[in-house]
Design brief:
The protein is built from 7 helices and 8 strands; from the N terminus they run E-H-E-H-E-H-E-H-E-H-E-E-H-E-H. By secondary structure, the chain is of the alpha/beta class. The protein has an 8-stranded parallel beta barrel. Helix 2 links the parallel strand 2 (about 30) and strand 3. The N and C termini lie close together (about 5 Å).
């Protein structure tokens, strides 16, 4: 079954409060912590304000691209449940997980079967494997059929240009789905109407 929703790239308090207090809140909310190329990037002081709210049933995720020690030390006291790590080796992933006592989502960017198979190097050290497109700050999809080789025993999530209308096609899949760009308006801000539609739609398609 579809396991739940992650809404990524939240950067303002109004949107965050709406999400965590929704009748059907998502499993995860992600915050872009160190990737300044993204329009969804959140400066530290704003980040501290955002993640300090009562999060209820939702886990907060720090999205980090090749994080250095400075950013890891900066956010270590913040209210995060997971670190989502891009471009981090299995060895460094293990060090980060143990040092900061945090759950880890390993994010792999996918263009081919070879990219998918890298999950095997991270499975034991990661709590979740995220299979994403190659776009980073841009929403770029990939062929989800490439994931057919990944056993159900792997705790997985998919991202990459997923739209609300795609959810029925994902019904019955044993993974979480991660949306960001498809929940934004023309100005690139999160649209509460789209978020409401997603969360109501997703709960009907989880089984």
């Amino acid at each position: 079954m579809l396991r739940g929703i992650k809404i990524c790239g939240v950067s303002d308090l109004e949107t965050l409060e709406y999400i965590v207090n929704h009748q059907f809140p998502p499993k995860f909310v992600g915050f872009i912590c160190n990737y300044k190329k993204s329009r969804r990037y959140v400066e530290y002081e704003k980040l501290k304000e955002l993640v300090n709210i009562k999060k209820r049933e939702t886990s907060f995720v720090a999205v980090l691209v090749d994080p250095d020690n400075e950013i890891l030390e900066e956010i270590k006291e913040l209210n995060f449940d997971f670190y989502q790590l891009y471009d981090v080796s299995p060895e460094k992933t293990k060090i980060i997980k143990e040092k900061y006592n945090v759950k880890v989502i390993t994010a792999l960017t996918i263009n081919s079967q070879k990219d998918v198979d890298i999950y095997k190097d991270y499975d034991e050290v990661s709590d979740l494997i995220l299979f994403d497109g190659k776009g980073y700050e841009k929403s770029i999809g990939f062929n989800h059929k490439l994931l057919n080789s990944v056993p159900d025993s792997v705790n997985k999530m998919i991202a990459g240009n997923i739209k609300i209308e795609d959810i029925p096609k994902l019904k019955g899949k044993n993974y979480y789905i991660d949306l960001s760009g498809s929940l934004e308006n023309e100005e690139g801000k999160k649209d509460l109407n789209k978020i409401n539609k997603l969360l109501n739609f997703a709960i009907k398609n989880e089984n």
